[in-house]
Amino acid sequence: MNWTVYQTVLWIHIFLAINWVGGLLFVGWGIFPALRLFELQDTRRVLRAVMKHSHYLFTFSGTAVILTGVILGTWLGPLDSFEAVWHTTYGNLWFAALIIGIVTLLWGTFIGYPHAMRVLSDNHLWDAAERGDRRPLNRSLVVLVLVESVEGFGFVSLLTLMIML
């Protein structure tokens, strides 16, 4: 029974991690570059709609990944005490993954997403770009990519730790 529960929770954990990471990578590496082919206002409207409607799904997936990771490491896993967390290699890696996962989720939820929505809502940037002055918009988009790349570094760190576990 325990093995079946473990495998089920592990499957859910992996599935939701794929949704969280894969979804964000698809927006960043698939949708965002493709929108450069559209007119500016269409780009803005589509990107804002995608971000607005996917944000809650990514936040849910990230939260569920963290919760299932806690369950896999503690209730269904080898970490049965704080001693095991602090004094075993598995515990140290698990705790590092927990902290990185939480920071990555919080960064995306409370820093990355609001920053993206501010850029997409700044009429002055988009109006200036429509009139031919794209530099302020381009600078804002570069800053947005840098802000959002923190999540990418978090995901790479998490994947590295999962391989080590």
From TrEMBL:
Protein name, entry field: Copper export protein
Domain of life from the UniProt record: Bacteria
Keyword terms, alphabetized: Membrane, Transmembrane, Transmembrane helix
Transmembrane segments: 12-35, 56-77, 93-113, 141-164
